[in-house]
Design brief:
With 289 residues, this protein is an alpha/beta fold. The protein contains 11 helices and 12 strands. This is Putative ABC transport system substrate-binding protein.
Length: 289
């Protein structure tokens, strides 16, 4: 029987863990799991990773960029499978997506910036000004902002709205330009933890939110083009099985989100006077009434 460590930053990634374990079981891999969740405390991850190493696990499944980083930094040569890391190369987890070159591989969780823009244009065909609200200390959000900059779309202007701390959100009415047509929220703990505050202000200004974090959609965002964390976990399990059977993670390519899901909030749309097209609703994985 194999021994697998699971290192998780927050419970928001539980679905990835469930998918990972379910796929291993389906493929006949029997394992004892040691599970550690830092409950959002990044500073605890190194300690938890060391505890997994002390248990002599055969592999670590790391959920989130900080968790993967903590696992990869272990001096022990323990293979790491990660998700939903947005930028594995920038996070120094791998040398390249095709040939990771180290002891880690996995499935990146970022949906491409051009796919997100196309999605926003499907919902709001005349959109020209999109705000991007992000926490300046969040590495994943910074990557998303950089990717939007690279689009150079002549029809759409991305207006960056950085915050340094959660308390800055109390001034959101002043931070949001009056002519903003939508607000995009990158993945990020500060943004997710304070989503209710953001919705309060955007509802006041009647600005629709496009979310990266799926649970934000039923909680008031207009829509989201999101990765299915359960599916990411299943795909990671396939890589874990290869490693447990003897393959080196250095030679197992890092995959990306193949089929992001469309989540729509019909109630929010009606409140904002926005209509979803029938074909968009048919494509949607979830439509919240």
């Amino acid at each position: 029987m194999y021994t697998i460590g699971i290192l998780q930053l927050t419970q928001n990634l539980d679905d990835a863990v469930h998918g990972f374990k379910a796929e291993l079981t389906e493929r006949g891999i029997h394992a004892e799991f040691h599970y550690f969740n830092a409950d959002g405390n990044i500073d605890q991850l190194a300690k938890l990773a060391n505890q997994l190493a002390e248990k002599k696990v055969d592999l670590i499944f790391a959920c989130s960029t900080p968790a993967a980083s903590a696992a990869v930094k272990l001096t022990q040569d323990i293979p790491v499978v990660f998700t939903p890391v947005f930028d594995p190369i920038g996070a120094n987890l791998v040398l390249s997506m095709a040939e990771p070159g180290g002891k880690a591989t996995g499935v990146a969780g970022m949906v491409k910036a051009d796919d997100k823009l196309n999605f926003m244009e499907r919902i709001l065909p005349t959109i020209q000004k999109i705000g991007v609200l992000y926490h300046t200390e969040d590495s994943n959000a910074i990557v998303e902002v950089a990717n939007f900059r690279k689009l150079n779309n002549p029809k759409v202007q991305f207006i960056e709205i950085p915050i340094k701390e959660a308390e800055d959100l109390s001034n959101l009415l002043d931070l949001l330009p009056s002519d903003l047509e939508a607000l995009f929220l990158p993945i990020g703990k500060v943004i997710e933890d304070n989503f209710a505050t953001i919705v309060y202000y955007t509802d006041t200004l009647e600005i629709p939110i496009i979310a990266s974090h799926a649970p934000n959609v039923p909680d008031g965002a207009l829509a989201g083009l999101v990765a299915n964390h359960y599916q990411l976990g299943k795909e990671c399990a396939v890589k874990a099985m290869q490693i447990l059977k003897g393959a080196s993670p250095s030679q197992i390519p890092v995959d990306t989100v193949k089929a992001p899901e469309i989540w729509l909030n019909q109630f929010t749309a009606e409140n904002l006077g926005i209509s979803f097209s029938e074909d968009l609703k048919e494509e949607a994985t979830e439509v919240f009434e």
